[in-house]
Amino acid sequence: MWKGFKRRVVFPNRHEAGEALADEMTRRHLDKPIALGIPRGGVAVAFPIAKRLACPLEVLVLKKVPVPWSPEAGLGAIALDRTLILNEPMVASLRLTPEEIEDTARKVYQEVLRRDQLYRGGRFFPDLSGRSVILVDDGLATGYTMLAAVEFVRRRGAEKIVVAAPVASDSAVTVLAPKVDELVILYVSDALTFAVADFYEDFSEMQDEEVLTLLKRAAPSGAEPQPQG
Questions:
Q1: Which end of the chain has the lower number of beta carbons within 10 A, N or C?
Q2: CB 17 within 8 A of CB 166
Q3: Domains present along the chain, CATH in parentheses
Q4: Is the dihedral of CA 98, 103, 106, 108 positive or negative?
Q5: What confidence tens digit (pLDDT) does each residue in 128-147 have?
Q6: Can you give the pTM of this predicted structure?
Q7: How many angstroms separate the CA atoms of 2 and 5, rounded?
């Protein structure tokens, strides 16, 4: 893990945070890199990294699985291939049944499918075999959503897994560090409370159209979508 800032930092916006991360990523040796942004905000952070490394930018859709009676609280995350990562201590403390978890995850998964179709338009997910995969988000609060992304790309043959984010809680670092090859975080917070928005001057919610624009700008000239089969 690398800590770039000794004192608490506030980034102007996601793009500038991505530029700061790109500075660090260029110092690393990455074989056949590909940047996968976690939508929506992670795509904006990943864009400068992909540009600087001259590597592909893709989107990896996954979503938080909320506590049934408290949608803002997450008990885990589900990815495109139905990879489900749960915060087991939380699940145990909430005394949720497997049926309750499955019902909630099934509803969230439908939104994962919808967003994947919207952002990737039916294209095959890229082959990750032999590649250095850079998973990017705009911040890591609990780490469980990113952990689902890690397991997803591992199952798809990623040679090296790098998680990159401008900011993270120390608890997220604890969750992720043993699971990845490299963890690149510019600032790690040990505060009792953590909110990603607190580390940005502009943390306005991104819209789907912004994600699509960034993906189009990052695509190689003349690239044609490949339908899924």
A1: C
A2: yes
A3: 14-218 (3.40.50.2020)
A4: negative
A5: 999 999 999 999 999 999 99
A6: 0.90
A7: 9
